[in-house]
Amino acid sequence: MHHYGANVFQMKYSQADVSRAVLDGLKAAVILVGADRRVIFMNPAAEGLLDTSTQRGFGRDVLDLLPMGMTLQGALIAAEEGATTTLREEALQGPMQAEGVTVDCTVSPIDYGTDGPCMIVELSPVDQLARMTRETTLHESQGAFSQVARALAHEIKNPLGGIRGAAQLLDAELSDKDLREYTRIITHETDRLNGLVDRLTGGYGASQRESFNLHSVLEHVRKLTQVETPEGLEFDRDYDPSIPDILGDHAQMTQAVLNVVRNAVQAMEGRGCIRLRTRVRRQCTIHHARHRLAVEASITDNGPGIDPSLKERIFFPMVTGRPDGTGLGLALTQEIISRHGGLIACTSQPGETAFTLLLPVGAKT
Predict the structure, then answer these.
(1) Topology of 3-126 in CATH?
(2) pLDDT in tens, 188-198
(3) Alpha carbon of 93 to those of 59, 66, 67, 97: distances in Å?
(4) How confident is the model over 106-122, as pLDDT tens digits?
(5) Domain segments of the chain: what residues?
(6) DSSP E strands: which ranges in 192-288?
(7) What is the torsional sign of CA 230, 232, 233, 235?
(8) Which CATH superfamily includes the segment(s) 209-364?
């Protein structure tokens, strides 16, 4: 860049603006720590990883914010003396995390123009690559399922049309009201099956796109479930009142959440607690695209957990842990979430199974 161009660039973009934009865009969690080991700044990735905001984390002792014990303390001491330390595969488990996370942690000294040494703490989840691989595999399997479902739909709807037409012709020939009632049942059930096939193949699409708040969906599902299971079931709500609206199909999203909640109720045999939790996420990567804002909703039950042999295939069609299950509920939920540009993930252990939905807000960054 020649001298004139450099001056124009500096006028338009200050060093502070550029530095902040770079930090906000990083996928790695970055925490700036002051001379007294107090947190000065956290980028959006750190806010998401630690489930807290810069405002809430500001001024806290970094050792309290990052429950990593003596290993982190040793790295901080080394940074104060000018050395950089990288800690591999450290467990990050504490009150700020819903579940344990394994991270690589690098602590480096930095000249921040203060009286004492400052440090940068970088955290990178080591399971991030595995998670992205699972997302890609799940997305590809969902696409394959959609193609197979559409092919099956064509084969199913053709005979259904013939059955419906024959029932209507028979209805016109019959004079006995009782017999005609049977033909009407055939017609009604044929129409119902047609509608089911449409839903399985996405025929009802995203035609009803509107702006809505995810809390309205969660509350509708909660109330409906409590009517269906009035005794023995409790809901614990932890809502972030600041979550923005999303754009999509309210009815489809309700069905997606309802499928997950009903699975939880069945897993707990109608007795237990379901926790509904929402948060705002910033600078999220969804399907390899970066989004400035996203809404995260988690549905957690205290049931027995998912069979380990099913964990990796839980969203695949025809996979179920119940003898009377169809294996379609979670596959349909995953497809609905995907239509909305989002992701759904599951973690499970005995006593805690969590399904987490991540839905983008607005345009990509």
Answers:
(1) Beta-Lactamase (3.30.450)
(2) 888 877 776 67
(3) 21, 8, 6, 6
(4) 898 887 665 667 899 99
(5) 3-126, 130-200, 209-364
(6) 209-212, 233-238, 246-249, 272-286
(7) positive
(8) Histidine kinase-like ATPase, C-terminal domain (3.30.565.10)
